[in-house]
Amino acid sequence: NSRITSATILTHCFPRPFSPPAPHRYFLCLQLRQDIASGRLPCSFVTHALLGSYTLQAELGDYDPEEHASHDLSDFQFAPTQTKELEEKVIELHKTHRGLSPAQADSQFLENAKRLSMYGVDLHHAKVL
C-alpha cells in the first residue's frame, strides 16, 4: 500500500535516440544551452567545457588567435557558475574543432548533450490533494 506524498517526484523521459530534423536542430541546441547554463540540466566541468567549445565553433567558426584572443567570453554563458578556468578550457577545446561547420558543431553538441544523465528528464513535484 504505497501513497503518493508531496515529496514524490514524477519524471517524463523522451527516447534517447531522438534526433531532430535539421531545421529544428538549432532551436534544440539553443534550448539545451539555456538549460545547461541555468543548471536545469546538470553536467560536469569537463562536459561544460566540451559543450561550450562546440557552442563557440557553431557561433564563431574556427578559432583564430588574432580574432578570438581578445574575445570576451562573458558574452557566452556555458555554466551556472562560469569561471576563468572553464573559459580557458572551452577555448583550448575550441581550437581542436577546426573545420567543423556550424551544423556539424551543433550535431556534436547534441550527441554529447544527449549522454547527460538528466537529458530528456523533466522533474515535477506532485502532491495528493
UniProtKB/TrEMBL annotation:
InterPro entries: Band_41_domain (IPR019749), FERM/acyl-CoA-bd_prot_sf (IPR014352), FERM_2 (IPR035963), FERM_central (IPR019748), FERM_CS (IPR019747), FERM_domain (IPR000299)
FERM domain sequence ranges: 1-129
Signal peptide region: none
Entries under PROSITE patterns matching the protein: FERM_2, FERM_3
Cellular component aspect of the GO annotation: cytoskeleton; plasma membrane
SMART domains documented for this protein: B41
Gene Ontology process terms (BP): actomyosin structure organization
Name used for this protein in its record: Band 4.1-like protein 2
Taxonomy of the source species: Eukaryota, Metazoa, Chordata, Craniata, Vertebrata
